[in-house]
Specification:
Number of strands of chain C: 2
Order of helices and strands of chain A: HHHHEHHHH
Shape of chain C: flat
Largest sheet of chain C: none
Number of helices of chain C: 7
Largest sheet of chain A: none
Mean pLDDT of chain C: 76
Low-confidence stretches of chain C: 71-79
Number of helices of chain A: 8
Structural class of chain A: mainly alpha
Structural class of chain C: mainly alpha
Distance between the termini of chain A: 56 Å
Chains: A mainly alpha (about 180), B mainly beta (about 300), C mainly alpha (about 200)
Order of helices and strands of chain C: EHHHHEHHH
Strand content of chain C: 5-15%
Oligomer: heterotrimer
Number of strands of chain A: 1
């Protein structure tokens, strides 16, 4: 099979299952940037993100036979990357008390948000908040999915997300003021 | 005034008299020294070529063997002169440990009354080797045609034309005052070019290109994973069959950028005169293209390689 | 958990525009190496499970136990001279064979003679005709106060002058050919551009 021939996802999976190294590389090439970015966003460390990526792709190739095609391949790989990345970071305990967050709290993102400031602000978040923000807002996870991945309740996931956003907004304002 | 008109007429007559360049052909004696040498190939071997004014052709075969054919050529109307000058061209084809060294060079002309060589001199290499054999090529002047390598290729070239076909694996290229023309390239490419023109068709995999003073035409296919291009004072064309499905991070300074209308993103102007734009298509995976252009022009267009 | 977000679309747009990152090239090599090891391990595991089981002959233990009872003694290799000579000859033949197989051929060499027609139209170039004028512009520029643009032009001209020197030297060594002349023409065009820009600054 030619390396550059377009393969459908199913063909690619079949070829990877038969341990075709070229197919494995195509799969890696397809997803490595997206997954590396995700790993970096969760770990906030490029070196750690490389470790995560290596470990995660080995897991992907070893357990591809268990992929049931209930989600897309990308979503399945993402789950493995997220789990691997989360296992690498030491999550700080959640310091916010639920009753401190009252309903009707308001976060105003204003009319313009500089991407570079947002990136810096995400990097400044404590690991737990960063993970919840990245999973839900950047990666589009539901609170249930994020809570399952992080081993927390849906309620905690919601409050952590709110707190993460508050911190982000404050950090962006701080950066703008400098 | 009259003098001026007379002068102009004189110049015109002179131009008419000399304008048609008369084709001039001469019969030359061609003396060719042909050297053939074979080496057994083992994993870990590398072919290391340093050519001067050489046309280097590298092709692959299934055999675990490296075949080298070198042709040293001298052309002159006088056969004796061609034969004499041919002797000035030296060559080396030798294995030392795991490296197979191939060289050609001109020995210095010494002695009283000796002048530079009079014959037209050139060298041709035809190297046939297993696809997985790593190759290092340094060539000044001449040309290189390299095809079907799958492992590692490094090229350092000046004033040469480099042609690449059907390459995979890791490829590093440095070119100055040259041209790089490639087709069906798939792997990890690292290219540094200065005052060179690049035309790469049907590219996939990962590309990292630094270019100064050049015209760069890149025709990507759907399997392109990542492209990083840093182009200074260069004219760049990036073609993709579906440019709207590509993620872009572009930055431009003193440059014009033309994007297809389907790429909906806004520019961010920075204080240093730089403009930036990022765009991510709404897809699960997509190629990433990061281009930084300074004092040049960038054109992104929907097109496949001709 | 209820809260309100104003201008949420701003956040969504910024998130879409967050930069992406690419891992180091070497990462795939590391993954591939690990996969290779895993594959070898797997093959080894499969192979070791498929290895046949053999039972020793009943008398084996008897031999072992009697050996254990005796004192260990050194056994002389090649006790018979004939065997030793035969082994030496065999070794020499084997070495020569291996050497012949792995040694490389010294290469064949031949000299051929042919004739051909060579088109030398325009080979006598005039690329040095304007050097005096160029030198004059440069000397005038040298006397001018420095500025960024002039410095950049000077650097570019220096690079192009060096390239021209290399090219003309190669022409004197290997002879002029169409490719060298084409390359020199390109450099001359670029030099002209620079000199014109310099002249405009004067």
């Amino acid at each position: 099979m030619s390396y550059t021939v377009r393969m459908t996802e199913n063909e690619l999976i079949e070829a990877c299952l038969s341990e075709n190294r070229l197919a494995q590389k195509i799969l890696y090439d397809r997803y490595s940037s997206a997954m590396y970015t995700l790993a970096y966003r969760v770990t906030n460390n490029f070196e750690l993100a490389q470790d995560v990526l290596q470990e995660a792709f080995i897991k992907v190739f070893k357990s591809l036979g268990q992929f049931r095609r209930e989600s897309t391949l990308g979503a399945w790989i993402k789950t493995i990357v997220v789990r691997t990345a989360l296992s690498k970071i030491r999550r700080e305990p959640v310091s916010v008390e639920l009753d401190q967050i009252t309903t009707g709290n308001l976060i105003d993102w204003s009319n313009h948000l500089d991407v570079e400031y947002l990136e810096k602000a995400i990097q400044s978040l404590p690991a737990g908040y960063r993970a919840i923000f990245v999973l839900i807002e950047v990666e589009g996870y539901s609170h249930k999915e994020a809570a399952d991945s992080l081993g927390i309740s849906v309620g905690t996931s919601k409050s952590q997300l709110f707190y993460a956003k508050k911190r982000l907004r404050e950090k962006i304002t701080e950066l703008l003021d400098v | 005034m009259r003098y001026s008109i007379a002068f102009l007429l004189f110049m015109l007559l002179l131009t008419c008299a000399t304008a048609p360049v008369i084709a001039q052909t001469i019969k030359v004696q061609v003396i060719t020294k042909k050297i053939e040498k074979n080496f057994h190939y083992k994993e870990g071997y590398e072919v290391n070529i340093e050519g001067e004014k050489a046309e280097v052709n590298i092709q692959t075969w299934e055999k675990k063997e490296i075949q080298v054919v070198m042709e040293l050529i001298a052309k002159h109307p006088d056969k004796a002169v061609a034969e004499r000058d041919l002797e000035l061209m030296k060559h080396l084809a030798q294995r030392v440990k795991n490296k197979i060294y191939l060289r050609n060079y001109l020995s210095s002309v010494e002695g009283k009354g000796k002048s530079e060589p009079e014959a037209y001199l050139s060298v041709k290499y035809t190297i046939t080797l297993p696809g997985e054999c790593p190759v290092y090529l340094k060539n000044i002047f001449g040309a290189a045609n390299i095809s079907s390598l799958t492992n590692r290729l490094r090229v350092n070239s000046e004033f040469s034309r480099i042609g690449l076909q059907n390459l995979k694996g890791s490829v590093e290229i440095k070119t100055r005052f040259g041209d790089l023309i490639g087709q069906n390239l798939d792997g990890w490419f690292n290219i540094q070019s200065r005052r060179s023109d690049l035309t790469l068709q049907n590219i996939s995999g990962r590309f990292n290109i630094q270019a100064q003073y050049g015209t760069i035409r890149l025709f990507a296919n759907d399997d392109l994973a990542d492209l990083r291009l840093d182009a200074e004072k260069s004219e760049v064309w990036f073609y993709h069959p579906n440019p709207q499905f590509v993620g872009y991070s572009l930055s431009a300074r003193g440059s014009e950028v033309n994007l297809p209308s389907r790429i909906d993103a806004h520019w961010l102007a920075l204080d240093n005169g730089e403009r930036k734009i990022t765009f991510s298509p709404n897809r699960e995976y997509y190629p990433k293209v990061s281009i930084r252009i300074t004092f040049g022009n960038l054109h992104v267009e929907k097109r496949v390689a001709p | 958990m209820e809260y309100r977000e104003l201008n949420r679309n701003t956040l969504e747009r910024a998130i879409r525009e967050l930069p992406g990152y690419t891992p180091e090239q070497e990462l795939w090599t590391a993954i591939e190496a690990q996969l290779e090891l895993e594959a070898q391990d797997k093959q080894l595991r499969i192979a070791t499970h498929q290895l046949p089981l053999y039972s020793p002959p009943p008398q084996a233990w008897g031999k072992i136990s009697s050996e254990l009872e005796q004192k260990p003694k050194l056994r002389k290799l090649w006790t018979r001279p004939v065997l030793a000579i035969a082994a030496t000859i065999f070794g020499v033949i084997l070495s020569v064979g291996v050497w012949l197989y792995f040694s490389e051929d010294t290469g064949a060499q031949m000299v051929l003679h042919t004739t051909e027609m060579l088109d030398v139209t325009g080979f006598e170039g005039d690329w040095d005709a304007d050097e005096q004028d160029i030198a004059m512009v440069v000397s005038m520029v040298e006397k001018m106060p420095e500025n960024e643009n002039l410095n950049s032009l000077k650097t570019e001209l220096k690079e192009l002058n060096e390239a021209k020197a290399v090219l003309t030297h190669t022409m004197s060594q290997y002879g002029k050919d169409a490719d060298l002349i084409r390359r020199l023409s390109k450099i001359e065009r670029e030099r002209s551009k620079i000199v014109k820009q310099m002249a405009a600054e004067i």
